[in-house]
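Form 7-S
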Amino acid sequence: MKKIVRICTALVIAATVPSATLSQGGTGVPPPQDKNVTVNALPPLAPYYGPRKRAIVSAMEVKVQGVATTAPTPSGNQTVVTIAIDQPTDFGLGLTEMLTTALVNSKRFIVLERQHIEEVNKELQVSRGAEFNPATSTAAGKMLGAQVIVRGAVTELSVKRSGTDVGGVLGDVLSFGQARAESKVAIDLKVIDVATGQVLESVRAEGKAVSKGMAIKLNKSDIKIGFSSFDNSPLGLAVRNAIEDAVRKITKKTDPMEWEAKIASIQDVDSQPAIYVNAGLDSGLAVGDILEIFRAGADITDPDTGLIIGKTGGLKVGQLRVTTLQKGVTLTTIVEGSGFQIGDIVKFFRRPGGLRPPPKDGGSD
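Output:
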């Protein structure tokens, strides 16, 4: 027999959202302040160098009604207490900001501002009418030069407790006595190729934190992303752990993808062509980097779905060397080739010292 109790809580997203700071050598989740809490250990991100891909992180959906807390009773049954989420949209936006920060901190992405995306979507809605669906379209991503879109949905927020000292509910407070409890968060993710609209990866990211010999207390004032009372709780640490797992799984798919930009302008400087690329200081490019230039190939369209599933091989035009990085653009000089045009595709080739991007299959050179 299950007893279900719902507590309406106001989930407020703080102005300063905690970040799951990932690095190539770190775990990304700070050590729990309580020695009785253990966070699910995850391996560090693989080494990475080279320019950062442009990404869009869509507002995360919350598909659960609240935090489901399960505990056994002396009679052998289970008591289920659900703390209902009053404002799931705000909670989802808070998690979106956490994921955005973690992706930026991975040094692999430039995450485009959501305000710009919304503005473009509004323009597309006006021009295309009711047939345009911003939730599924990649048109805004194409217009903003993004390579990937990350879409996520929270599908589990739970605390599973062992032992029969169940505690109970008093007003807005849910309290359990000292025992072992596992806090778990799950996020379903899709990584979408903007160029083709295809889902490159569909994965489930999970975060877990196990507490032993400590009381668990959840109340209306505690469940606030960005507040230490929640961030340092087992459930808060499980949220951060899930964000870290999400970044690991996203980057595993996107690391082998080729970085791309375009030639934005060609000017004559002292009778020599100066070629500008639409990637600047924040792109991760470095002076001396060698870039390969290709003429864009033709779209390949699936005859059954009408979706673009790829492009024909573009003609290689030549190579450029990065000489100056500016805000928004990079100045390059010609290493080899001729006939460069505005709109030509730019790809990262190598860094001084011979370093090259990871192979497309994700393996090692």
